[in-house]
Automatic annotation (TrEMBL):
The chain crosses the membrane at residues 12-39, 308-331. The keyword Iron-sulfur does not apply. Residues 361-396 are annotated as: Disordered. This is 1-acylglycerol-3-phosphate O-acyltransferase 3. It comes from Sus scrofa. SMART domains: PlsC (SM00563). GO terms for biological process: phospholipid biosynthetic process. GO terms for molecular function: 1-acylglycerol-3-phosphate O-acyltransferase activity.
Length: 396
Protein backbone atom coordinates (compact mmCIF):
# COMPACT_ATOMS: atom_id res chain seq x y z
CA UNK A 1 0.00 0.00 0.00
CA UNK A 2 1.41 3.40 -1.01
CA UNK A 3 1.64 6.34 1.37
CA UNK A 4 -1.32 8.18 -0.19
CA UNK A 5 -3.49 5.06 -0.16
CA UNK A 6 -2.58 4.57 3.51
CA UNK A 7 -3.45 8.18 4.40
CA UNK A 8 -6.86 7.82 2.76
CA UNK A 9 -7.79 5.16 5.32
CA UNK A 10 -6.73 7.12 8.41
CA UNK A 11 -9.30 8.57 10.77
CA UNK A 12 -7.15 11.59 11.65
CA UNK A 13 -6.95 12.55 7.97
CA UNK A 14 -10.73 12.21 7.63
CA UNK A 15 -11.11 14.35 10.74
CA UNK A 16 -8.93 17.08 9.26
CA UNK A 17 -10.85 17.04 5.97
CA UNK A 18 -14.10 17.34 7.90
CA UNK A 19 -12.64 20.13 10.00
CA UNK A 20 -11.69 22.13 6.90
CA UNK A 21 -15.12 21.62 5.32
CA UNK A 22 -17.12 22.55 8.42
CA UNK A 23 -15.06 25.56 9.51
CA UNK A 24 -14.72 26.94 5.98
CA UNK A 25 -18.47 26.45 5.55
CA UNK A 26 -19.22 28.47 8.68
CA UNK A 27 -16.88 31.21 7.49
CA UNK A 28 -18.58 31.22 4.09
CA UNK A 29 -22.03 31.37 5.72
CA UNK A 30 -20.88 34.34 7.80
CA UNK A 31 -19.68 36.14 4.67
CA UNK A 32 -22.95 35.32 2.92
CA UNK A 33 -24.83 36.84 5.84
CA UNK A 34 -22.88 40.05 5.32
CA UNK A 35 -23.80 40.10 1.61
CA UNK A 36 -27.49 40.41 2.47
CA UNK A 37 -27.05 44.17 2.67
CA UNK A 38 -26.47 44.11 -1.09
CA UNK A 39 -29.87 42.56 -1.89
CA UNK A 40 -31.90 45.81 -1.82
CA UNK A 41 -29.02 47.77 -3.42
CA UNK A 42 -27.70 45.50 -6.19
CA UNK A 43 -29.45 42.14 -6.44
CA UNK A 44 -27.33 40.86 -9.33
CA UNK A 45 -24.06 41.63 -7.54
CA UNK A 46 -25.41 39.81 -4.48
CA UNK A 47 -26.18 36.78 -6.66
CA UNK A 48 -22.79 36.72 -8.38
CA UNK A 49 -20.94 36.93 -5.07
CA UNK A 50 -23.00 34.13 -3.55
CA UNK A 51 -22.45 31.90 -6.58
CA UNK A 52 -18.71 32.12 -5.95
CA UNK A 53 -19.02 31.65 -2.20
CA UNK A 54 -21.18 28.57 -2.75
CA UNK A 55 -18.63 27.25 -5.24
CA UNK A 56 -15.91 27.55 -2.60
CA UNK A 57 -17.89 25.21 -0.33
CA UNK A 58 -19.43 22.70 -2.77
CA UNK A 59 -16.18 22.30 -4.71
CA UNK A 60 -14.59 20.74 -1.62
CA UNK A 61 -16.99 17.81 -1.93
CA UNK A 62 -16.36 17.64 -5.67
CA UNK A 63 -12.62 17.59 -4.89
CA UNK A 64 -13.12 14.44 -2.83
CA UNK A 65 -14.78 12.72 -5.77
CA UNK A 66 -12.39 13.95 -8.46
CA UNK A 67 -8.99 14.17 -6.78
CA UNK A 68 -9.27 12.12 -3.56
CA UNK A 69 -11.12 9.06 -4.82
CA UNK A 70 -10.26 9.73 -8.51
CA UNK A 71 -13.75 8.61 -9.54
CA UNK A 72 -14.25 8.86 -13.30
CA UNK A 73 -17.42 10.24 -14.88
CA UNK A 74 -18.23 9.43 -18.51
CA UNK A 75 -20.99 11.12 -20.49
CA UNK A 76 -23.01 9.26 -23.12
CA UNK A 77 -24.61 11.85 -25.39
CA UNK A 78 -24.01 13.69 -28.66
CA UNK A 79 -21.53 16.41 -29.55
CA UNK A 80 -24.20 19.06 -30.10
CA UNK A 81 -25.56 18.55 -26.58
CA UNK A 82 -22.11 18.72 -25.01
CA UNK A 83 -21.49 21.96 -26.89
CA UNK A 84 -24.45 23.55 -25.08
CA UNK A 85 -23.37 22.55 -21.56
CA UNK A 86 -22.84 25.60 -19.37
CA UNK A 87 -24.23 27.95 -22.01
CA UNK A 88 -27.95 27.89 -21.25
CA UNK A 89 -30.41 27.72 -18.38
CA UNK A 90 -31.74 24.16 -18.06
CA UNK A 91 -33.80 21.84 -15.88
CA UNK A 92 -31.99 18.61 -14.99
CA UNK A 93 -33.92 15.39 -14.31
CA UNK A 94 -31.72 12.81 -12.54
CA UNK A 95 -32.59 9.35 -11.24
CA UNK A 96 -32.19 8.96 -7.48
CA UNK A 97 -30.74 5.49 -6.91
CA UNK A 98 -27.37 6.19 -5.28
CA UNK A 99 -25.95 7.98 -2.28
CA UNK A 100 -23.53 10.01 -4.40
CA UNK A 101 -25.67 10.68 -7.47
CA UNK A 102 -25.87 14.37 -6.51
CA UNK A 103 -22.07 14.47 -6.30
CA UNK A 104 -21.70 13.10 -9.84
CA UNK A 105 -24.12 15.80 -10.96
CA UNK A 106 -22.08 18.46 -9.15
CA UNK A 107 -18.94 17.16 -10.85
CA UNK A 108 -20.48 17.81 -14.25
CA UNK A 109 -21.67 21.22 -13.04
CA UNK A 110 -18.11 22.06 -11.98
CA UNK A 111 -16.53 20.92 -15.23
CA UNK A 112 -18.89 23.11 -17.24
CA UNK A 113 -18.70 26.13 -14.92
CA UNK A 114 -22.15 26.15 -13.30
CA UNK A 115 -21.51 24.60 -9.87
CA UNK A 116 -21.96 27.82 -7.90
CA UNK A 117 -25.20 28.68 -9.69
CA UNK A 118 -26.73 25.19 -9.62
CA UNK A 119 -30.22 24.98 -8.07
CA UNK A 120 -32.47 22.31 -6.61
CA UNK A 121 -36.02 21.89 -5.42
CA UNK A 122 -35.23 21.02 -1.80
CA UNK A 123 -37.18 19.67 1.15
CA UNK A 124 -37.94 22.51 3.55
CA UNK A 125 -36.32 20.86 6.59
CA UNK A 126 -32.93 21.24 4.91
CA UNK A 127 -33.26 25.02 5.19
CA UNK A 128 -32.34 24.75 8.88
CA UNK A 129 -29.30 22.50 8.40
CA UNK A 130 -26.01 24.39 8.92
CA UNK A 131 -23.71 24.71 5.90
CA UNK A 132 -26.03 22.88 3.49
CA UNK A 133 -29.34 24.62 4.05
CA UNK A 134 -27.85 27.97 5.04
CA UNK A 135 -25.81 28.17 1.85
CA UNK A 136 -28.89 27.25 -0.19
CA UNK A 137 -30.90 29.99 1.46
CA UNK A 138 -28.47 32.63 0.23
CA UNK A 139 -28.58 31.02 -3.24
CA UNK A 140 -32.39 31.47 -3.40
CA UNK A 141 -33.00 27.73 -3.50
CA UNK A 142 -36.69 26.82 -3.70
CA UNK A 143 -37.82 24.88 -0.61
CA UNK A 144 -41.00 22.82 -0.36
CA UNK A 145 -42.85 20.61 2.14
CA UNK A 146 -44.21 18.13 -0.44
CA UNK A 147 -47.78 19.16 0.40
CA UNK A 148 -48.84 20.80 -2.81
CA UNK A 149 -51.66 22.98 -1.45
CA UNK A 150 -49.15 24.50 1.00
CA UNK A 151 -46.23 24.60 -1.45
CA UNK A 152 -47.88 25.97 -4.59
CA UNK A 153 -47.51 29.70 -3.93
CA UNK A 154 -44.03 29.40 -2.39
CA UNK A 155 -42.68 27.25 -5.23
CA UNK A 156 -44.21 29.40 -7.97
CA UNK A 157 -42.90 32.59 -6.41
CA UNK A 158 -39.43 31.12 -5.88
CA UNK A 159 -39.20 29.87 -9.46
CA UNK A 160 -40.39 33.12 -10.99
CA UNK A 161 -37.82 35.01 -8.91
CA UNK A 162 -35.09 33.13 -10.82
CA UNK A 163 -36.26 34.45 -14.20
CA UNK A 164 -33.59 37.19 -14.27
CA UNK A 165 -30.77 35.11 -12.74
CA UNK A 166 -27.46 36.50 -14.10
CA UNK A 167 -25.48 33.22 -14.20
CA UNK A 168 -26.31 30.15 -16.27
CA UNK A 169 -28.05 27.75 -13.90
CA UNK A 170 -28.81 24.04 -13.88
CA UNK A 171 -31.99 23.45 -11.90
CA UNK A 172 -31.96 19.88 -10.59
CA UNK A 173 -35.14 17.89 -10.01
CA UNK A 174 -35.37 14.45 -8.42
CA UNK A 175 -38.86 13.75 -9.72
CA UNK A 176 -39.02 10.46 -7.77
CA UNK A 177 -39.03 12.54 -4.59
CA UNK A 178 -36.86 10.18 -2.57
CA UNK A 179 -34.06 7.67 -3.03
CA UNK A 180 -34.89 4.30 -4.56
CA UNK A 181 -35.28 1.32 -2.18
CA UNK A 182 -36.99 -2.01 -2.73
CA UNK A 183 -39.71 -1.19 -0.21
CA UNK A 184 -40.41 2.23 -1.73
CA UNK A 185 -40.37 0.70 -5.20
CA UNK A 186 -42.98 -1.91 -4.23
CA UNK A 187 -45.31 0.75 -2.83
CA UNK A 188 -44.70 3.03 -5.80
CA UNK A 189 -45.61 0.32 -8.29
CA UNK A 190 -48.82 -0.37 -6.40
CA UNK A 191 -49.71 3.30 -6.92
CA UNK A 192 -48.73 3.03 -10.60
CA UNK A 193 -51.01 0.01 -11.04
CA UNK A 194 -53.90 1.84 -9.38
CA UNK A 195 -53.45 4.70 -11.88
CA UNK A 196 -53.14 2.40 -14.89
CA UNK A 197 -49.51 3.36 -15.52
CA UNK A 198 -46.88 0.91 -16.85
CA UNK A 199 -44.60 -0.53 -14.13
CA UNK A 200 -41.03 0.71 -13.75
CA UNK A 201 -38.22 -1.67 -12.89
CA UNK A 202 -35.41 0.71 -11.91
CA UNK A 203 -37.25 3.88 -10.87
CA UNK A 204 -40.01 5.06 -8.59
CA UNK A 205 -43.13 6.63 -10.05
CA UNK A 206 -42.27 10.30 -10.74
CA UNK A 207 -44.13 13.06 -8.94
CA UNK A 208 -45.34 15.40 -11.63
CA UNK A 209 -46.39 18.58 -9.77
CA UNK A 210 -42.88 19.92 -9.21
CA UNK A 211 -41.85 19.23 -12.79
CA UNK A 212 -44.91 20.72 -14.47
CA UNK A 213 -44.73 23.81 -12.25
CA UNK A 214 -41.01 24.27 -12.90
CA UNK A 215 -41.31 24.12 -16.69
CA UNK A 216 -44.33 26.44 -16.63
CA UNK A 217 -42.71 29.06 -14.38
CA UNK A 218 -39.31 28.94 -16.08
CA UNK A 219 -40.59 29.14 -19.65
CA UNK A 220 -38.80 31.98 -21.35
CA UNK A 221 -35.79 31.49 -19.03
CA UNK A 222 -34.94 27.81 -19.34
CA UNK A 223 -33.97 26.63 -22.83
CA UNK A 224 -34.18 22.86 -22.37
CA UNK A 225 -34.63 19.87 -20.11
CA UNK A 226 -31.64 17.53 -19.71
CA UNK A 227 -32.63 14.00 -18.83
CA UNK A 228 -29.72 12.30 -17.01
CA UNK A 229 -29.69 8.56 -16.31
CA UNK A 230 -26.86 7.49 -14.01
CA UNK A 231 -25.33 4.11 -13.22
CA UNK A 232 -21.99 2.71 -12.03
CA UNK A 233 -19.83 0.12 -13.70
CA UNK A 234 -19.46 -3.25 -12.08
CA UNK A 235 -22.91 -2.98 -10.48
CA UNK A 236 -21.32 -0.89 -7.71
CA UNK A 237 -23.37 0.90 -5.06
CA UNK A 238 -21.04 3.78 -4.06
CA UNK A 239 -21.25 5.71 -0.81
CA UNK A 240 -19.93 8.94 0.66
CA UNK A 241 -17.90 6.89 3.13
CA UNK A 242 -16.32 4.99 0.25
CA UNK A 243 -15.35 8.30 -1.37
CA UNK A 244 -13.84 9.49 1.91
CA UNK A 245 -11.74 6.31 2.08
CA UNK A 246 -10.50 7.01 -1.44
CA UNK A 247 -12.41 4.24 -3.19
CA UNK A 248 -12.54 4.78 -6.95
CA UNK A 249 -15.79 4.36 -8.88
CA UNK A 250 -16.69 4.65 -12.55
CA UNK A 251 -19.87 6.59 -13.20
CA UNK A 252 -21.69 6.55 -16.54
CA UNK A 253 -24.26 9.24 -17.30
CA UNK A 254 -26.59 9.16 -20.31
CA UNK A 255 -27.69 12.72 -21.16
CA UNK A 256 -30.55 13.58 -23.51
CA UNK A 257 -31.53 17.16 -24.35
CA UNK A 258 -35.18 18.12 -24.89
CA UNK A 259 -35.88 21.72 -26.01
CA UNK A 260 -38.47 23.24 -23.71
CA UNK A 261 -40.83 23.95 -26.60
CA UNK A 262 -41.19 20.18 -27.07
CA UNK A 263 -42.76 19.83 -23.62
CA UNK A 264 -46.55 20.41 -23.64
CA UNK A 265 -47.95 23.56 -22.10
CA UNK A 266 -50.96 21.78 -20.65
CA UNK A 267 -50.27 20.45 -17.14
CA UNK A 268 -51.90 17.07 -17.74
CA UNK A 269 -50.07 16.55 -21.02
CA UNK A 270 -46.77 17.62 -19.43
CA UNK A 271 -47.34 15.04 -16.67
CA UNK A 272 -47.93 12.36 -19.30
CA UNK A 273 -44.71 13.46 -21.04
CA UNK A 274 -42.82 12.96 -17.76
CA UNK A 275 -44.26 9.47 -17.23
CA UNK A 276 -43.20 8.54 -20.76
CA UNK A 277 -39.73 9.93 -20.06
CA UNK A 278 -39.37 7.66 -17.03
CA UNK A 279 -40.41 4.65 -19.08
CA UNK A 280 -37.59 5.54 -21.48
CA UNK A 281 -35.18 5.98 -18.56
CA UNK A 282 -36.17 2.51 -17.39
CA UNK A 283 -35.38 1.10 -20.83
CA UNK A 284 -31.98 2.83 -20.75
CA UNK A 285 -31.20 1.23 -17.39
CA UNK A 286 -32.24 -2.17 -18.72
CA UNK A 287 -29.87 -1.71 -21.67
CA UNK A 288 -27.08 -0.72 -19.30
CA UNK A 289 -27.59 -3.80 -17.14
CA UNK A 290 -27.49 -6.02 -20.24
CA UNK A 291 -24.67 -4.37 -22.21
CA UNK A 292 -22.72 -2.37 -19.62
CA UNK A 293 -22.98 0.87 -21.62
CA UNK A 294 -25.53 3.53 -22.51
CA UNK A 295 -26.22 4.51 -26.15
CA UNK A 296 -24.44 7.51 -27.65
CA UNK A 297 -20.93 8.88 -28.01
CA UNK A 298 -18.66 8.79 -24.97
CA UNK A 299 -17.18 12.01 -23.57
CA UNK A 300 -14.88 12.42 -20.57
CA UNK A 301 -14.76 16.12 -19.69
CA UNK A 302 -11.38 16.96 -18.16
CA UNK A 303 -11.32 17.71 -14.46
CA UNK A 304 -10.20 21.23 -13.60
CA UNK A 305 -7.63 22.15 -10.93
CA UNK A 306 -9.82 24.72 -9.16
CA UNK A 307 -11.52 22.30 -6.75
CA UNK A 308 -8.16 21.02 -5.53
CA UNK A 309 -6.60 24.48 -5.30
CA UNK A 310 -9.63 25.80 -3.40
CA UNK A 311 -9.42 23.00 -0.83
CA UNK A 312 -5.65 23.38 -0.43
CA UNK A 313 -6.09 27.11 0.14
CA UNK A 314 -8.68 26.56 2.88
CA UNK A 315 -6.59 23.77 4.43
CA UNK A 316 -3.51 26.00 4.51
CA UNK A 317 -5.40 28.80 6.23
CA UNK A 318 -7.31 26.65 8.71
CA UNK A 319 -4.85 23.86 9.53
CA UNK A 320 -1.68 25.90 9.96
CA UNK A 321 -2.75 27.25 13.40
CA UNK A 322 -3.98 23.78 14.38
CA UNK A 323 -0.67 22.13 13.54
CA UNK A 324 1.24 24.97 15.20
CA UNK A 325 -0.75 24.39 18.36
CA UNK A 326 -0.18 20.64 18.24
CA UNK A 327 3.57 21.05 17.71
CA UNK A 328 3.71 23.58 20.53
CA UNK A 329 1.95 21.14 22.86
CA UNK A 330 4.42 18.34 22.25
CA UNK A 331 7.44 20.65 22.14
CA UNK A 332 6.55 22.11 25.54
CA UNK A 333 6.70 18.67 27.14
CA UNK A 334 3.83 19.44 29.46
CA UNK A 335 2.18 16.13 30.44
CA UNK A 336 -1.12 17.87 31.18
CA UNK A 337 -1.26 19.54 27.76
CA UNK A 338 -0.26 16.34 26.00
CA UNK A 339 -2.98 14.37 27.80
CA UNK A 340 -5.51 17.08 26.94
CA UNK A 341 -4.60 16.91 23.25
CA UNK A 342 -4.69 13.11 23.18
CA UNK A 343 -8.03 13.16 24.97
CA UNK A 344 -9.42 15.47 22.28
CA UNK A 345 -8.33 13.08 19.52
CA UNK A 346 -9.65 10.07 21.43
CA UNK A 347 -13.00 11.71 21.98
CA UNK A 348 -13.21 12.40 18.26
CA UNK A 349 -12.85 8.68 17.53
CA UNK A 350 -16.08 7.97 19.38
CA UNK A 351 -18.05 10.60 17.49
CA UNK A 352 -19.31 10.89 13.95
CA UNK A 353 -16.43 11.56 11.62
CA UNK A 354 -18.60 12.17 8.59
CA UNK A 355 -18.70 15.37 6.58
CA UNK A 356 -22.17 16.35 7.71
CA UNK A 357 -25.74 15.22 7.02
CA UNK A 358 -26.38 12.93 4.11
CA UNK A 359 -27.21 15.01 1.10
CA UNK A 360 -27.87 12.30 -1.46
CA UNK A 361 -31.59 13.11 -1.29
CA UNK A 362 -31.14 16.85 -1.60
CA UNK A 363 -34.01 17.97 -3.75
CA UNK A 364 -36.92 16.20 -2.04
CA UNK A 365 -35.46 14.24 0.83
CA UNK A 366 -33.61 14.89 4.07
CA UNK A 367 -34.09 14.37 7.76
CA UNK A 368 -37.39 14.20 9.54
CA UNK A 369 -36.72 17.09 11.90
CA UNK A 370 -39.72 19.37 11.99
CA UNK A 371 -39.10 22.93 10.86
CA UNK A 372 -39.59 25.46 13.62
CA UNK A 373 -41.42 28.71 13.02
CA UNK A 374 -39.25 31.57 11.83
CA UNK A 375 -40.03 35.26 11.25
CA UNK A 376 -40.52 36.59 7.77
CA UNK A 377 -37.20 37.48 6.14
CA UNK A 378 -36.83 41.18 5.27
CA UNK A 379 -34.03 40.38 2.82
CA UNK A 380 -35.72 37.99 0.43
CA UNK A 381 -38.92 39.67 -0.82
CA UNK A 382 -41.86 37.34 -0.52
CA UNK A 383 -39.87 34.53 1.09
CA UNK A 384 -41.70 33.53 4.26
CA UNK A 385 -39.75 31.37 6.70
CA UNK A 386 -42.86 30.66 8.78
CA UNK A 387 -44.53 27.41 7.61
CA UNK A 388 -48.19 27.91 6.62
CA UNK A 389 -51.05 26.19 8.37
CA UNK A 390 -50.92 22.42 7.88
CA UNK A 391 -53.26 20.75 5.45
CA UNK A 392 -53.79 17.08 5.05
CA UNK A 393 -53.82 16.69 1.28
CA UNK A 394 -50.70 16.19 -0.80
CA UNK A 395 -50.11 16.49 -4.50
CA UNK A 396 -48.48 13.93 -6.79
Amino acid sequence: MGLLAFLKTQFVVHLLIGFVFVVSGLVINAIQLCTLVLWPLNKQLYRRLNCRLAYSLWSQLVMLLEWWSCTECTLFTDEATVGRFGREHVVIILNHNFEIDFLCGWTMCERFGVLGSSKVLAKRELLYVPLIGWTWYFLEIVFCKRKWEEDRDTVVEGLKRLADYPEYMWFLLYCEGTRFTEKKHRVSMEVAASKGLPPLKYHLLPRTKGFTTAVQCLRGTVAAVYDVTLNFRGNKNPSLLGILYGKKYEADMCVRRFPLEEIPLDEKEAAQWLHKLYQEKDALQEMYHQKGVFPGQQFKPARRPWTLLNFLAWATVLLSPLFSFALGVFASGSPLLILTFLGFVGAGRTGNAGLGPEVGGLPCAGGSTQAQSRPRSPWRPGFNLSPPASKSSSGH
